[in-house]
Batch of 4 targets.
Target 1
Amino acid sequence: MRAARAAPADFRMAYFETYSPLSFVQPDGRMGGILVDVLGAVLNEDLGLHCLHEGFPWPRAQLRVTLGTSDAVCTIATADRLAYAVAVDEPVVTATNTIFVRADHPQFEALSRVKSLDELKALNLNVLSYSANGWAREKLQGFDVTWGGDFNSALKMLVARRGDLMVENALTMSYTLQRTPGGEQVRMLPNRLDQANFQLLIGKRSPHVERVASIGRALQQFKRTPAYADVFKRYGLSAAMRGSS
């Protein structure tokens, strides 16, 4: 996707371009998704900033914030990311991280009873993820992990039995599985292994880093309005799909 030219006052967001329904490139080339819609409302409408929404392969999106080419990403605040960015305390979206596994997996019942990452690790199964998944890099140390090139390739590996399971947020996985051939064979288990807080991470090189507190207040206020729930409905998702914040 071609990057738009930025004016000095622009707030330039860098998104994961293939992470539906949170952020993705629409057929007309523009970015869409829950993160895009929420941040557009908060940054543009509530704070009066001119927000540019740009999509990139996920490693490049993060690198742009590291270098100061983009102002922010919206993702999970890992230790590595907080080395180059400051997190807005209020999450943009909160989702449950749980296990996704094929219904015919021989250890389906055992996996349904797992209550923690430590219990999952003890089963010695192969977990699928993707190379730029910061949460997985931080939380799945010591696991047998097969790294796909990106989120969609890891999901297709799960459908094709090239690994045992994925641990991912319920929003993205449920939405994408419905649109993936063979996705109906994968089940979301009821275990809650973690909470995925997608926070706005403003780069330390960005001139907007001083806005962290004001953005947090505006985001908190927006989430109390019906407009926040309407964003999820726009993508066919109910409030029940969200974790508690």
Target 2
Amino acid sequence: MPTFYLWHTSIASFNGLAVVILLSQLCLSNAVKADLLQWSESEIQSLNGINFNEPFNPEHVSKSIITVTHVHGWSYGRNFFFMDTLFSTDGEPAQINLYGEAYSTLSVGKILKRDLSLGIFKDFGITGGVNLGENMDSVQSGFRAWLYGVTVDFDLPGFDYFNVDFLRQRVTETDDMGTSWQITPVWRLPFHIAGSKWSFEGFADFIGKKGEHAARQALAQPQLRLDIGDFFGNSDQLFIGVEYQFWHNKYGIKGLHDSVPQALLVWTF
């Protein structure tokens, strides 16, 4: 989700999102051709929630969201991207918003071909990324954030992964807003209940203030998933569950908050 807005034309921002996805696909294609690809995972999520809050709108907004994500690991690190398509269904004029992020992490352990693990510490890497947003129903909308920093991978009991990004963030609008900081833990914790397969996964963004432009933010989107495909002999493919969105100072606007549970359906491939 975006942290603030940048004024640009719709076409320019949409093209920017397309470039992010194209570059990510090229990275995957090149990795496959060079036999560097080690693993990959893609999924499509469908989310539906009510009681979203938006700026200058006293009404609660209902939204349907389609999210496409892809992540893959290769010989020197990993690449990740997602794109949200958000449809407003009630509480504001019908509109479509796009929001995407792409990150690439170079693993120091993989590059040096050394095991850097020590206790709960597993590896660390150098990370760079871009966040892009667009309101397709507005000629004056858009978002640009450029991020760089380090990622620390932890080896915690029971977790498939637990990573924390420590990033500098630069948001560019009509005027450059300067830099701030962002800390983002990402996790997946699988578990079983009475023979059924579940997972608790998600991320949280903690973002510093940007001068007088944007207040400090906290955005968390944890998900609880039930693997319903496992009941039919096709595990790790189809999930239902709930995502809870908590956003303090949404878009960096002091006093604007979200606390929204959303119905979740996920297809992984």
Target 3
Amino acid sequence: MVHDAAERGYGTGTDAYRRARPGYAAAIVEALHQSLPDGLVVELGAGTGILTAELVGRGHRIVAVEPVASMRAALAQAVPGVIGSVGRAEAIPVADGAAGAVVAAQSFHWFDAAAALDEIARVLVPGGVLAVVWNVRDQSVPWVAAYTEITDEFAGDTPRYATLAWRRAIDADIRFVFDGERFADNPWPTDVDGVVDRALSTSFIAALDKHTQAEVAARIRDSVAGLGPTFDYPYRSQLHVWRRA
């Protein structure tokens, strides 16, 4: 099963996701590229192909696994030649020991960590890489904190990056040995409409009824109205790497 917020939210919010979600800092993408061995790379929760395109452009052979049909369609448009594979982290459609690396960008929080780690361990060769990539908002910026306060009202039990449950699960699994991490600022040029789209691309906001979405959008719009015609959305990109024991 896919979490309801992901299936309904991303199923209806794919267009907003494609418009509003940032790429990853160039330094992080390059560090990821350098950390990946030769061989097949399995990308879990590939979404609309934001990271997929970067990896393909650097010559990596990718199996892009994505459970949501509208996201797979967007990925196929964004990354010609890569067809999103139906599957999920807990049932990876790849043979035992077939992958040199498994990558999850902005997605590991959705996984049933124990089942996903079993599958990742199954498909990786010994010494293979597990890489987890994130874009994280800078909550020290007042308007970002206000944005988060508004959207968090609707989060419910949706899995979140911020709990760090994903990190604790990987670190606790003796099959994966921590191999380092990198951080880089990733300011993303945007405007008021872009910030609203970013909110509407959030799974649990995209899953709301249209009336409630409109109310959220109006509140978000008010919270950033004085920032000017264009401004930066302050993200920080992160890369965390483990190796299969």
Target 4
Amino acid sequence: MDSEKFQKQDKQQEDLDNWKKWPIINFITKTLVITELEIRKLKHDPTELISRVIQPIMWLLIFGEVLAHARAIPTGHMSYLAFMAPGVLAQSVLFVSIFYGIAVIWERDLGIVYKFLSSPAPRTSLVLGKAISAGIRGFSQAIIVYILALLLKIPLNLNIWALLGVLIFILLGAIIFSTFSLIIACIVKVRERFMGIGQLLTMPLFFASNAIYPIAIMPRWLQIFSHVNPLTYEIDAIRHLMVLNAPSVYGLGKDFGVLLLASIIIVWIGSKIYPNIAT
């Protein structure tokens, strides 16, 4: 009986090992390992998440409340706070993601990057795993903004599928901007220079989107830039899913397609450039 039991266990282990050898399964497994390694850092230093609480509070309670009383921005049937809340959520995730490259430079200085590059994990798994971890960090911002929105009596769509959709779009947006940040870090390779470039990029991305005002009131040249800004499509989808009866300008299908395509392209570029951080 023991012999048959051991043979069965060996067969199960062999099947599991063969299953893991499939290219796509192997890729997913190694990507999730990198993601888990990045998320584990939060257990040792959760102060980053705590410090990020302040930003959405200031935008919604100060900036949002003031402009809500000004009534100068056309938002249709929505209140200005309801219009702005999804933009603040996307902005918070953008700020978390765009400075993610600074961690890559730290890893290079500490010698951790060399260990990653010498591992059998594909470069794409390394980049995508880090990007997914940025998205998971962004989920904490969603919790904060949803709580604030409830306190401000913003009509939210709390349907489970809508909530899941918001998380998916947050994840896609974080993948795009954190990988973009990684690419910049691989090019500049200096923390001080990276911080300056990161601050320079966040404001144009944020203000040239539909985060705090509709695209229709922008000048024509800014509308063109907004239409190629991934943040615009992320906010459009989140607003439609987050706020009750909020329309989608582009449609969820187009929003998802644009962000997915942008994610694939930028992760591929990032996987090609990532080894440069070690040189």
